[in-house]
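Mods, move this if it's the wrong board.
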Amino acid sequence: MNGSKSVGLGQQIVDESGAGQESASSSSSLRQALGLAGAVVGLVVAVTACACGPLMVGLSALVSDGLPDGVAIQQALAMTILGGGLGLAVTVEGWRVWQGRPSPPFHPRRTWVLWVVLLPLLAAGLLVSFLAPAHLLPPINTLTMLLLPTLVLGAVGQVMGGSGGTWRDVVGGLAGGAFLGTGLAMVVEVGMVVFVAVVALVLGLMPGGVGGLESLGQRLSDPALLYDPQALLDFLTPTVVLVVLAFVSVATPLVEETTKTLGAGLAGTWLRPSPAHAFLLGVASGAGFALAENLLNGAVLSVLWGPGILSRLAATLMHCATGGLMGWGWGELWARQRPWRLALAFAGAVGIHGVWNGLAVGAAVSGLVAAGMADDPVRGKIAALVALVLVTAMLLMAAATLVGVLWAGRVLSRAAVSQPHSS
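Not the wrong board. Structure tokens:
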């Protein structure tokens, strides 16, 4: 009787071991299939982007009967860098997954080299912006915009010392933030603008009806509008300012903080990342989002290039910090089943993003008022003082987010080392 029980128990152990091996084999096969699919998709994106970039420049040259304009060059470079660069990185990592090759820990070294490259770029950009910005500035602008999130991500990787994740995680986070995060955010935000415009037309709130809407679109698409403070002041009525403030300080943060780390959150369903691992994924997603935003929307090809770069650096810090905060929230959800911490992280990220955007709008409007009040020196000086205060607040906020994201990375990495978590 006892012998029969021993045989039965032994057979059960063998069956369970076999089932475990089959499950591991199935998981490995699925992982390899996903890696191969990622490699193919990344290659298609890279080839398409690299083909479309030169095509955009050529079409611009044909339309203008001469050299392409600076905006076309900038857009072509942005498409090539985003699609070609990130697509190729995804292809390489997907191929390595298919081959079953592990990825080394993300612990970048010698990041000081990036500063050695950035400082001459800044000097060259400032010089070129005053001389011939149309065709020479886009390449400098593109390289500078590329370096900004790279510097932040490299600093986070250094303080975490490789305990947050791997280079593959960083590539995935960058691609998720740049493609999925930015793409979804643009679709939703454009949809919101269209919805508001339709409602305004239906309710009769748009002066001139459809014709007024077309006229508004033509005015906003005129590049000369950005360099005419008085024309901008005539356009920015108190109602318009309030609507813009509500959109960029409430609606935009809600949308972008939802989409920015969505890829990392979905990946958590099978990665089950620790808070430190998820934090790095979030920072990488924020860096990818900032990279796309910098390249697509951050081109200031004029004498204002210097202040534009400063604002994009500060915005990059904000995106990486809020991405890291959301990543930590996802880690608390997947690893520790604490959904309330994800909700708390989302509220904090939206709050930081909303305050930042509100300060940016206030500084921009105050600066326009100061520039357009030549006939009223007193009001002009007051507006300039308000703009200075708001810009100072933005710089202090950017510095605080940098300190915060580095501190959080160090604390989480130490916790990951002292309490290893399988992710």
